[in-house]
Amino acid sequence: MPNVNTNDRVRATAVLLGPSGEVQNVYYFRFQGVIPAGDLLVMADLADFLDGVYTDINLGIAGNYTYTEVRGFNMTQNVPMPTVSWPNLTTGGGSGGVSPSGVALLVILRTGISRVFGRKYFGGIIDGNIDSDGFWVSGLVSAGITAAGQLLTTFIGSTTLATYLPGIITSTNTFLGFISAVVTNNPSYQRRRRKGRGV
Predict the structure, then answer these.
(1) Which of 2, 81, 115, 175 could pair with 72 as two cysteines, CB 3.0-4.6 Å apart?
(2) Nearest CA to 107 among 166, 42, 174?
(3) Bridge partner list, 66
(4) What is the C-alpha to C-alpha distance for residues 84 and 47, in angstroms, rounded to an integer?
(5) From first to last of its 199 residues, what are the pLDDT tens digits of the chain?
(6) Distances (CA, A) of 150 to 5, 53, 68, 182, 198
(7) At 155, phi and psi to the nearest 5?
(8) How does DSSP classify residue 128?
(9) Half-sphere exposure for 66 (CA within 13 Å, toward CB)
């Protein structure tokens, strides 16, 4: 089992499956553990963390969306990591019709550098979360704020007890953590991307 070393950058792709196909979000993490950890153990940490992020918004996700897997890739070593299951979440917790394919709750994650930021599109949102003016209801936006808050700081892996920092990798190959988040109340659109590619 290959090891993940201190300061390795790891990509974790959160995958849900809905009526129109996969909905993916790509997340980047820097492994800050002092002792190297096995890649399967690291993926267990990341899947558990993402499970917590999505739990915050799960009541807004339609029940016909299934949490299928979390895919991993070590960006530093340029090697794939194991694909793992979501530890707790199975299906969306919302009831009612789903909003059109591609419509998503948008979270913008800012770094300390102007115009360098991350975007997360949470798809599969039930259409009951859109108010009469065409905006997301405040309860969904609040849930998005709570979910985004988990991405703004380091966390301790539940399996390895190592520290991780969520963030992005810039065009100059610099890893930056997030310092603030904005959740828009305007429904956004997540265009289709190639498998394994995020937004």
Answers:
(1) 81
(2) 166
(3) 17, 91
(4) 7
(5) 679 999 999 999 999 999 988 999 999 999 999 999 999 999 999 999 999 999 999 999 999 999 999 999 999 999 999 999 999 999 999 998 888 888 999 999 999 898 899 999 999 999 999 999 999 999 999 999 999 999 999 999 999 999 999 999 998 999 999 999 999 999 998 765 555 554 4
(6) 23, 7, 21, 13, 19
(7) -140, 160
(8) G
(9) 7
Distant-in-sequence, close-in-space partners of 18: CB < 8 Å, separation ≥ 6 = 62, 64, 65, 66, 98, 101, 123, 124
User: Hunting for tokens 């915050």 — which residue is that?
Assistant: 56
What's the whole-model pTM score?
0.92
Cα dihedral: 38, 44, 49, 53 (round 10) = 140
